[in-house]
Amino acid sequence: MKILFVCTGNTCRSSMAEALARKLLTGRSGDKCDVHFFSAGVAAFPEDRASREAVQAMSEMGINLQHHRATRLSRDNVLEADLILTMTRGHLDHVKNLFPQFAAKVFTLAEYADSIGDVPDPIGQSLEGYHRCARKIEELITRILDKLLQKNK
Questions:
Q1: Number of domains the chain is built from
Q2: pLDDT tops 80 at residue 30
Q3: What's the chain's average pLDDT?
Q4: Which end of the chain is more exposed for a tag (fewer CB within 10 A), N or C?
Q5: Which residue segment(s) compose the domain that 19 sits in?
Q6: d(CA 3, CA 118)
Q7: From 49, 69, 72, 121, active-site residue
Q8: What are 72-94's pLDDT values in tens digits?
Q9: Which listed residue (7, 12, 118, 133) is catalytic?
Q10: 93 is catalytic
Q11: Is the pTM of this model over 0.85?
Q12: Which one from 12, 13, 118, 133 is the annotated catalytic residue?
């Protein structure tokens, strides 16, 4: 299974979600779940680096985001994904408008985690804003991985 995380610029939320999902899945020793994660932004500037604060917040969680480079959402990455998880309802609507034929596999991160609301954009906030964002993403991804791993049992 391939899961695509989508935000605006692919330098904060979706890049952190991709990295956190990998770490959380890897941390579940003994679980054999063939899931791959990648990310993109609806308005990304290809090859932009993750924001300094995102890199620092992830580093403090034991994750190296230094080598991340932004990817713009494209038909190719939408086709490759089995599941597309957006950070906001606005991102979800944007993806569905661009690719209506793939609407059935697009959800907000919160919606797929059986929660509500958007993952707020930390851009322009202090490092603490990035920590809050990362904790929210981690909580939602943990719920999603629990759901996916239950399906594979």
A1: 1
A2: no
A3: 94
A4: C
A5: 2-151
A6: 18
A7: 121
A8: 999 999 999 999 999 999 999 99
A9: 7
A10: no
A11: yes
A12: 13
Q: Domain containing 22 — which CATH number?
A: 3.40.50.2300
Known catalytic membership, residue 118: no
What are 92-120's pLDDT values in tens digits? 999 999 999 999 999 999 999 999 999 99
Written in H, E and C, the secondary structure of the chain is CEEEEEECCCCCHHHHHHHHHHHHHHCCCCCCCCCEEEEEECCCCCCCECCHHHHHHHHCCCCCCCCCECCECCHHHHHHCCEEEECCHHHHHHHHHHCHHHHHHEEEHHHHCCCCCCCCCCCCCCHHHHHHHHHHHHHHHHHHHHHHHHHCC
Is residue 12 over pLDDT 90? yes
